[in-house]
Design a protein that fits this description.
Order of helices and strands of chain A: HHEE
Structural class of chain B: alpha/beta
Oligomer: heterodimer
CATH class of the largest domain in chain B: Alpha Beta
Distance between the termini of chain A: 35 Å
Largest interface: A-B, 48 and 50 residues
Order of helices and strands of chain B: HEEEHEEHEHEHEHEHEHHHHHEEE
CATH topology of the largest domain in chain B: Rossmann fold
Structural class of chain A: alpha+beta
Strand content of chain B: 15-25%
Helix content of chain B: 40-55%
CATH architecture of the largest domain in chain B: 3-Layer(aba) Sandwich
C-alpha cells in the first residue's frame, strides 16, 4: 500500500540523509545513495499528493475477513 | 478523673476542631438533602441525613455553580467534602467541594474501586502502553456512525492527513449494550488485524453516560488489544477507566484524530527539508572530494615540480658542499703554508747548497792541488828520466861495453858457463851487432 511505502520511504530517506551528512561514505557510494534519496523524495511527495481519504463502514465479518461499505455520515450535526 | 488542665471554651473548641479537621480532611459521603436554604450570598446550606443521623452541610456559591444538577430537598446525593468546625457556634458541618445526584455516588465509588483494582493489576502501567504508529495507513473509529463525533473526526482527518483510510466500526456508546459493543469491536479488529490504530470515541456526558467507558469489560478489551488504542471520550476534563487503560488518551474525539495522524503539511515540509539536506549533503561530499582530489593532485601529479625541487636542492647541496670543501682546503692550505714555512727553514736544499759550496771549494782546492802535484811529478819525472838515461845500456855500449846474447834463447850471457864452445852468440855494440862463435872459454881471468 502506498501509505506503507510512505513510512518506509521517509525512514529510508532520513537514513540516507544522515548517512550522507556523516560524510563517511566513499564518493561513488554517496552518489548512489543520493540517487536513491532523490527517488525516495519523489515517491514521498507523490504519495502525499495522491491520497484522498477513503472512509468505509464495517458491515460484517466473514471467513475471509471483514466486509465494509463506503461511508458518509448521514446526520452531520444531529444529536446522538 | 482529675485533670490538671482546665480548658477554656475556646481552647477546647480549638482542640476539637483540630482533631476533627485533621481526621477527616476529605471524605466521600452520601445522604438525603433536607432543610435546603439558599440565602442571597448564593451559598447553599442544608442538612444531610439518613435514617439514623444527620449532619450539617454547606456548598459555597462557586462550587455550587459548577454542579451539573440543581439541589433539591429530598434528593439523595454523593459528595466530596471536608469536615469543619465553626467555632463561634460550636457546630460542625461538611463543606462540600463536589456533589452528584443519587446513583452517581455509587457510580463514583464503583469507579474508584475499579480504578484501584485495575491499577493494582497493572492495566495502567506506562510500560504496557503500545507506541502509536507514526504513519497509520488505516484507522478504525469505534463509535456511533451517526452524530457529530464521527463527522468531526472525519473532517479533521481529511484536513490534516488525507492519506489515511478510515474504517468506521459502529458501536453503541451509551447505555447497557455499549460495553459489549465496544469490547466486541476491539476483539474483532484485533482478530483480523484490520487496521493499525483504533480510536474509541464518544462525546462528553455525565458519569452515567460515560459508564461504558468506565466498565471493566471495556478496560480489559482495551488492555488486551494488540493494536494500539486511543481513547477519546468526553470533553477535556472527564477521565474514564478507558482513558487510563488506553495507549493514549485524547481529551476529545477531534483531538484523537489529530494525535493519530501527522499533519500532511508538516510531512510535506519534512520531505522538502530532507530533500534539501540530501542535496546539501551530497554537495558538501562532492566539495570535500574535490578539495581532497585537488590537494592530492597537487602533491602527486607534478613530477616536473618535484624534479625542479630536487634540482634546487641538489644545487644548494652542491654549493654547500663546495663551500665546505673550500673551508677545509683553505684550512689545510694555511696549515700547509705554515708547515712549508716551518719546513723551509730546515730544508735539505739548504744543506745541499751548503754542500755544493763546500764541494766547489774542495774541487777548486783539489784541482789546484792536482795541478801542483803534476808539476812536481813532471819535474821528478824529468829528473828520473835523466837519471834513467844515465843508466841506459846504450851509454854503456857507447863507452865500449857490449851485451852478449845467446842466439837461440836470446838470453843475456853474463857467465861463461852459460855458453858452450861453438855456440853462436849475438854481440850487441853501440852501433850494431856482431854474430860470433865461441871458440874458447877462459874462466876467472879477466882483462879489462
Amino acid at each position: 500500500m502506498a501509505k506503507k511505502k510512505f513510512e518506509e520511504a521517509v525512514a529510508q530517506l532520513e537514513a540516507i540523509v544522515e548517512e550522507l551528512e556523516s560524510g563517511d561514505l566513499p564518493l561513488d557510494k554517496a552518489m548512489k545513495r543520493f540517487e536513491e534519496g532523490v527517488k525516495l523524495s519523489k515517491t514521498c511527495s507523490e504519495t502525499l499528493d495522491e491520497a484522498e481519504t477513503r472512509v468505509r463502514i464495517l458491515t460484517g465479518e466473514t471467513e475471509e475477513g471483514l466486509e465494509d461499505a463506503p461511508f458518509e455520515p448521514l446526520d452531520q450535526r444531529g444529536a446522538e | 478523673m482529675e485533670r490538671k488542665e482546665i480548658y477554656s471554651v475556646s481552647s477546647l473548641t480549638r482542640e476539637i476542631k483540630g482533631l476533627l479537621e485533621n481526621r477527616f480532611p476529605y471524605v466521600w459521603i452520601y445522604g438525603e438533602i433536607s432543610n435546603l436554604r439558599i440565602p442571597s450570598s448564593g451559598h447553599c446550606y442544608f442538612t444531610l441525613k439518613d435514617r439514623n443521623a444527620q449532619i450539617s452541610g454547606v456548598i459555597f456559591r462557586g462550587q455550587a455553580s459548577r454542579l451539573k444538577f440543581r439541589l433539591e430537598d429530598g434528593q439523595t446525593i454523593t459528595g466530596l467534602g471536608r469536615v469543619s468546625l465553626y467555632e463561634p457556634r460550636g457546630t460542625y458541618q461538611v463543606i462540600f467541594e463536589f456533589m452528584e445526584p443519587k446513583g452517581a455516588g455509587a457510580l463514583q465509588l464503583a469507579f474508584e474501586q475499579l480504578k484501584r483494582k485495575l491499577a493494582d493489576e497493572g492495566l495502567f502501567d506506562p510500560e504496557g502502553k503500545r507506541p502509536l504508529p507514526r504513519f497509520p495507513r488505516r484507522i478504525a473509529l469505534v463509535t456511533s456512525p451517526t452524530g457529530a463525533v464521527v463527522h468531526d473526526m472525519l473532517t479533521v482527518f481529511r484536513l490534516r492527513y488525507p492519506n489515511v483510510d478510515l474504517l468506521v466500526v459502529p458501536a453503541r456508546v451509551q447505555g447497557e449494550p455499549a460495553s459489549s459493543d465496544i469490547a466486541t469491536a476491539l476483539a474483532l479488529l484485533n482478530r483480523h488485524m484490520a487496521v493499525d490504530l483504533i480510536i474509541v470515541a464518544r462525546g462528553g456526558g455525565s458519569l452515567e453516560d460515560l459508564a461504558p467507558f468506565n466498565s471493566e469489560r471495556v478496560a480489559r478489551a482495551i488492555h488486551q488489544s494488540v493494536l494500539p488504542v486511543i481513547s477519546a471520550v468526553g470533553h477535556e476534563t472527564d477521565y474514564t477507566i478507558a482513558d487510563f487503560t488506553a495507549d493514549m488518551r485524547a481529551p476529545t474525539p477531534t483531538a484523537a484524530a489529530s494525535l493519530a495522524v501527522p499533519e500532511k503539511k508538516r510531512l510535506e515540509e519534512d520531505v522538502a527539508l530532507l530533500t534539501v539536506r540530501l542535496i546539501r549533503a551530497l554537495g558538501q561530499r562532492l566539495e570535500e572530494s574535490r578539495q581532497r582530489l585537488n590537494a592530492t593532485s597537487r602533491r602527486l601529479v607534478d613530477p616536473q615540480k618535484k624534479i625542479y625541487d630536487h634540482r634546487l636542492r641538489i644545487d644548494e647541496l652542491t654549493q654547500r658542499m663546495a663551500r665546505a670543501i673550500q673551508r677545509v682546503v683553505s684550512g689545510h692550505q694555511a696549515t700547509l703554508a705554515w708547515r712549508f714555512a716551518q719546513l723551509s727553514k730546515t730544508s735539505p736544499l739548504l744543506a745541499v747548497a751548503r754542500g755544493q759550496q763546500a764541494t766547489d771549494g774542495l774541487t777548486r782546492r783539489l784541482v789546484f792541488a792536482m795541478k801542483q802535484g803534476q808539476a812536481q811529478k813532471r819535474a821528478t819525472l824529468i829528473r828520473l828520466e835523466q837519471n834513467l838515461k844515465a843508466l841506459s845500456p846504450q851509454l854503456v855500449l857507447d863507452r865500449g861495453y857490449s851485451i852478449v846474447r845467446d842466439v837461440k834463447s836470446g838470453g843475456v850471457i853474463t857467465r861463461t858457463s852459460q855458453v858452450e864452445i861453438g855456440s853462436l852468440l849475438d854481440v850487441v855494440l853501440a852501433d850494431g851487432k856482431l854474430t860470433a862463435v865461441v871458440e874458447r872459454k877462459d874462466d876467472g881471468k879477466k882483462e879489462i
